[in-house]
Amino acid sequence: MKRAALALLLGLGAMGMAAAQYRGPLFDAHLHYNTEACPHEATPVPACPHPLADVLDRMQRNGVRAVLANSRPNDGTLALAKAQDATRAAGVTVVPFVRLYRNRDDYNNWFRDPSIVAMVNTELARGTPAGPYRGLGEFHLYDSANADGPVARELMALADEKGLAVLAHVDDVAVEKLMAHTPSKGRQLRLIWAHTGIGGTSAARVDALFARFPGLHGELSYRPGLTCGEGTLCPEWRALLLKYPDRFLIGSDTWVNQRWQAYDGLMQGYRAWLGTLPPEVAKKIAWDNGAALFGLPEPAPR
Ligand SMILES: [Zn+2]
Q1: Which residues cross the membrane (predicted)?
Q2: DSSP structure class, residue 247
Q3: Domain map of the chain by residue range?
Q4: 251 contacts: CB under 8 Å, gap ≥ 6
Q5: In this predicted model, what pLDDT tens digit does every residue of 191-242 receive, in sequence order?
Q6: How far is the CA of 139 from the centre of ligand 1 (A)?
Q7: pTM across the whole model
Q8: With contact defined as beta carbons under 8 Å apart, do 150 and 182 qualify?
Q9: Which of these, 24, 71, 106, 297, has the minimum number of CB atoms within 10 Å of its CB?
């Protein structure tokens, strides 16, 4: 950054003036379209609080131009992938992931349940109307020891071999374990770390893991200690984002319907702190890093 620009930025900060919001495209790298939002697996569809038109409108009015989509069960993702006229009209590219969950019980058992591998292979073979699945997840490991479960090992090897990305809600120890279970020992796997340590993994530890694993990316929803007040990044996280501008992503994590209802506010919150970063760094975190992971072109301005 030029000295004058830095001085100006510091001056604005000192005067307590709000930085301009980031106004470019957003890549929502953690989106669920679960059965509670709309039960696409049932016919006829019973109560559907958030039909396709509603969720696409939320994305469109927030400048979200691509979504990493997954759902419990996978029918929600398939519904998004199938609605190509509607997603095109909304200017949204759908990047489909295979969720490992058919239902809530699978959250706590997927890592040792062989029927999950069969389900994943069936989905991968079938693909989606928006193209092949690009990754696996989101999955959860509430106890890092379960990263050693037979199905967790098998699916990490599968992801590594097939070049699938992974969206994992895990702790720092499980990141190491999952990486160790890949044939490349984590040198190749693109692992998107949901929340970048929801339990509050220290910035120093995140830094060490990023240095060790070149394909490790951090998605920032719910990340404790990220912001210090409205629209302000905490100093150590600001430093980490500036140190690894190519490795962070934003996401909505619409795991319950309240998150759909809060979608506008979530995206405005991201735009506020993104606006405090150098413009090229903001653009990377907002869009470029997700686009690079999945080979998406720059979206046409709307
Ligand atoms: Zn999630």
Answers
A1: none
A2: S
A3: 26-294
A4: 28, 29, 30, 31, 68, 194, 219, 220, 221
A5: 999 999 999 999 999 999 999 999 999 999 999 999 998 899 999 999 999 9
A6: 8
A7: 0.93
A8: no
A9: 297
